[in-house]
Amino acid sequence: MTISESDPRLDRELYQLAEVDDRDDSVRCPLCGRRLDREAFRTPKVPPEVLSDGSLDLVARAYVCARHRVDVVAFEPASIAPDTFVGVDAVVDDQEARIAVPEPLAEREGLA
Ligand SMILES: [Zn+2]
């Protein structure tokens, strides 16, 4: 897949790692601290620049905070994801993390 310069998504999303409260596993936007609804998770496509192997075609659990100039896509750490998700190494906003990829997809890509 090639991303053209006119792709309207280019400046509309900012990829971050969700902050997790150790006490109750609640999830917050790392930029504004807003509590994000864990029932409202999404599985956006993971941009190749955050993966150690950028050729992988993956989606991962994430929450979207729409309070910002661009949508903040906060990936959920695999440590709090359900068992049906597999941790995959990524670098999100200069932080090493394991993001939560659906197990069948991870298997298909040879990661699980
Ligand atoms: Zn926010």
Defining traits:
single chain, 112 residues, mainly beta, three-stranded mixed sheet, three-stranded antiparallel sheet, 5% helix, 32% strand, globular, binds zinc ion
Span of the ends, CA to CA? 24 Å
Please give the largest β-sheet.
Answer: 3 strands, mixed
H and E order: EEEEEEEEH
Name the shape in a single word.
globular
Describe this structure in words.
It is a single chain. This protein is mainly beta. The chain has one domain. Helices cover 5% and strands 32% of the residues. It has one helix spanning 103-108, and strands at residues 13-17, 19-20, 27-28, 35-36, 62-65, 71-75, 85-92, 95-102. The strands form three sheets. A three-stranded mixed sheet has the order 1-6-5, with no helix packed on it. The radius of gyration is 14 Å and the shape is globular. The mean pLDDT is 91. The structure holds zinc ion (ZN). Residues 29, 31-32, 34, 65, 67-68, 72 line the site of zinc ion (ZN).
